[in-house]
Fold:
Amino acid sequence: MLRFLTAGESHGKALTAVIEGFPAGILIDQDFINAQLKKRQGGYGRGKRMEIEHDRVEILSGVRNGETLGSPISLMIINKDWPNWQEIMSPEPGAHIWEKKVTKPRPGHADLAGTLKYGHKDIRNTLERASARETALKVAVGAVAKCLLNQFNINIYGHVVSIGGVEAKVDYSKLNSSLYNTPLYCTDERAMGEMIKLIDLTKEKGDSLGGIIEVIAFNIPVGLGSHVHWDRRLDGRLAQSVMSIPGIKGVEIGLGFASTKLPGSQVHDEIAFSNEKGFHHLTNNSGGIEGGISNGEAIVLRAAMKPIPTLYKPLLSIDLYSKEKHYASVERSDTCAVPAAAVVAEGVTSWEIARSFLEKFPGDSLREISESWKRYLTYLRQV
Structure:
């Protein structure tokens, strides 16, 4: 079973991840992983933390001579800001816990709920782990998954379709690596200009913006996921993984919520057959998944990201100790992190597709997996 765990705090010494169940013989390009991490740090509207951190992964185990060994893979990303926080965040007794103490929870953040749940006296004990800083590991782990998927020509792209109500007209021909050279990872240049103006105006007001992202996975084979158990449905897995990204409040696949406004005749994808393509669909309103199973079309999902809860003109809150009204605490933050969320969603989507791929085509090595894959393709051509 393919799985991963992460550990680390936002201002701790490092972020770490352990990947278990990854097959042997997969080429791992460390520069490729670092390029994905750089994408996550980009995007117009990011805060000053991104000027400090220049994320690079260090592979500690599970890879030798550029290839996976089949043993657990451990990854580490050093926090460059650690020297400024080591006395405050030290795990040893005597840490300066009174410095940077937080007692005024931010509305919309895990601050209050997490602090009450775990009985903390300092909100920092919650916010450090609840921080979106942890998503750097999601991107790194997703990049490892991509190294597997690349062997089978499966390509996955995350991009921005709206920010603060400014909608982009998606040009799917522009979904390639050059997309991430744009300021907002958006295919619509006109819309990007409006989004940038809105971000600037919002920043001046000390406010924040959310938006909608889209992830598309191409060349997905028929048969990933299953209808037979709730926890094997591919759409359910994807939705859960994307919803685990901080700030994501909704996920839809294919037409999603728009399908509720249409009759079934305009929603369901008609089926066709040709000697060249085999069974296929004339449209892709289902977003590439039917009954929890990939149907051979591109997987398309969208996610809604709320505005970041840290505001430089903060909302009202209550002090944990005095119970008096105060403005919420302010941590270093972004005005808009929607482009970064698109990269993170791309990463977790890659991971979930890799999980389902290895369940469908099991093996301890790339050779075994490839043989299973080839047999399946032969089977599909003979149906």
Summary: The chain has ten helices and 17 strands. The chain has one domain: 3-382. The longest strand covers residues 155-163.
